Amino acid sequence: MAANVIYGKDLAEELRQEMKQEVSTLHEKGVHPKLVVVIIGEDPASMSYVKGKKKASEKIGLDSDLIELPEKTSEKELLTLIERLNNDSSVHGILVQLPLPDHIDDQKVIETIDPKKDVDGFHPINVGRMMTGQETFYPCTPYGILVMLKRAKIDIEGKHVVIVGRSNLVGKPVGQLLLNENATVTHCHSRTKDLRAHTKQADILIVAAGKADLITGEDIREGAVVIDVGVNRVDGKLTGDVEFESAKEIASHITPVPKGVGPMTITMLLHNTMEAAKRIHSVK
Ligand code: NAD
């Protein structure tokens, strides 16, 4: 039987409608959540991502600024800008679009953002808070996956979650979030021996490797839930890490690419910005 397709796009739209209401309630309380996105250089993919983030913010009523800086911007100039945004009380969320040019140290930039405004959830303080189960900002893609599983009423507790990928951006934090939800988590990566032996055991399989069609129906256990995080461009078309056609015949639930995880990522960024404003102004 073909799998249920979980459309993150529809869910994201539902959540954004809910958030729009919440933003308008915050406005009534005098709180105007604001996101500032900083981009360096003119990489077309990054530019398209940040424009999408700004547009989505405005659609739900958030204030937003896009600061575009030239490729030659020095690390010192960027850090000074971040300090200024840290001290600007009208700004609640700061996002610096990664990757940065080679002459700028990504980690130094991440660590300069005030953890209270780190809506990407990458600051080591926030990563540590997530590991120890304290209030923090969860990284947007892993958080989007968690919300998607919950909204689709997929049981997580006690389930065997296998994650293909161990990046700081997706693989590791999604594992941590699902461990916090009492899943049993296995991480696979480029040096894992016999990948299929692991993926076949998954109740929930999350694939974030960045390799088109790495996983096919033959790698999946009958009835598994498959979350495809990968975004690959093949012959000008976007495709995931999972071969959708074969996988959907075996899985019970599956996310497509596009219209799957991607729209949830931006939605959780909006959520985190709203949360940042609520925490900074101590409103519920
Ligand atoms: P990354 O390159 O930092 O990490 C990839 C991970 O996959 C590594 O841990 C690596 O060990 C593992 N891997 C690579 N090839 C493998 C193989 N053959 N077998 C097993 N493991 C393998 O990438 P990332 O930043 O984690 O992103 C992963 C994918 O998710 C990319 O396609 C990226 O574009 C996509 N992504 C999507 C969203 C979204 O919102 N939809 C957000 C972030 C990333």
For this entry, give a set of tags.
Rossmann fold; binds nicotinamide-adenine-dinucleotide; 11 strands; globular; 284 residues
Second CATH tier, the architecture of the largest domain: 3-Layer(aba) Sandwich
Strand content: 15-25%
The best one-word shape is: globular
**Count of separate structural domains:** 2
Low-confidence stretches: none
Give the neighbour order of strands across the main sheet. Answer: 1-11-8-7-5-6
The residue fraction in helices comes out at 40-55%
Instruction: Report the CATH C-level class of the largest domain.
Output: Alpha Beta
Q: Give me the count of strands.
A: 11
First CA to last CA: what distance?
44 Å
Q: How is the biggest beta sheet arranged? A: 6 strands, parallel
Mean pLDDT: 97
The CATH homologous superfamily of the largest domain is termed NAD(P)-binding Rossmann-like Domain
Class derived from helix and strand content: alpha/beta
Q: What is the fold's blueprint, element by element?
A:
Layout: E1 4-5, H1 8-28, E2 34-40, H2 44-59, E3 63-69, H3 75-86, E4 93-96, H4 106-112, H5 124-131, H6 140-151, E5 160-164, H7 171-180, E6 184-188, H8 195-199, E7 204-207, E8 225-228, E9 232-234, E10 237-239, H9 244-247, E11 253-254, H10 261-280
Parallel strand pairs: 1-11, 2-3, 2-4, 5-6, 5-7, 7-8, 8-11
Antiparallel strand pairs: 9-10
Helix pairs in contact: 1-10, 2-10, 6-7, 6-10
